[in-house]
Design goal:
Layout: H1 2-6, H2 12-19, H3 48-66, E1 70-74, H4 88-95, E2 108-112, E3 116-118, E4 134-136
Antiparallel strand pairs: 1-2, 3-4
Protein name: DNA helicase
Length: 140
C-alpha cells in the first residue's frame, strides 16, 4: 500500500485504511499508550511548539511515574575558551544575534532523574555532545 501511495496509485480502499490510523477516526484501533511499545514512543515532529509541549508533558509523566523530583535548571553561560563567564561585550554580541543564530537554546530546562534526553544540536562534538546523542539523566 505504501509503495502505491508513493507513486500516486493508491486506491480509495488504501486511503480509507490509512485514515483508520488517525486516532480520532471511529474505526481506529487505539493503542494503549501506557503499555510497550507505545509507552516509550519517540515523537518525530517538525514543529518546535509540539516538541516543547511533548517534552514538558513527558517530563511531568516521568516524574509522576518514578516518584522522582522534577528540577528546573537555569542555563549557565561560559566562554568556550576560558570556561569563565563571558564578558559584557560578548553578552551584548550574543544578545544582538537572531534567535536562529544562537541555536534557540533555552534559558531554563526541566529535568527528572532517569528521564531520556536527546541532543538536537552539535553543541560540543569533541565531547560527543552532538545532534542525535541520546542518554538518560542521572545524579552526579
Amino acid at each position: 500500500m505504501l509503495d502505491k501511495l508513493r507513486i500516486g496509485e493508491c486506491t480509495h480502499e488504501d486511503i480509507e485504511e490509512i485514515n483508520k490510523l488517525v486516532l480520532s477516526h471511529p474505526e481506529c484501533e487505539k493503542p494503549d499508550f501506557q503499555q510497550e511499545p507505545w509507552s516509550n514512543a519517540v515523537l518525530v515532529t517538525s514543529r518546535h511548539a509540539v516538541r516543547e509541549q511533548w517534552n514538558e508533558h513527558s517530563t511531568i509523566k516521568h516524574s509522576i511515574m518514578t516518584g522522582n523530583i522534577r528540577y528546573s535548571v537555569k542555563a549557565e553561560d561560559l566562554d568556550r575558551d576560558t570556561k569563565k563567564e563571558p564578558s559584557m561585550e560578548a553578552r551584548l554580541a550574543v544578545a544582538e544575534l537572531e534567535a536562529k543564530q544562537t541555536g534557540k537554546l533555552k534559558d531554563e530546562i526541566q529535568l527528572t532523574v532517569g528521564m531520556k534526553a536527546m541532543v538536537l544540536l552539535n553543541l560540543a562534538t569533541e565531547a560527543d555532545i552532538a545532534n542525535g546523542t541520546r542518554g538518560e539523566t542521572s545524579m552526579g
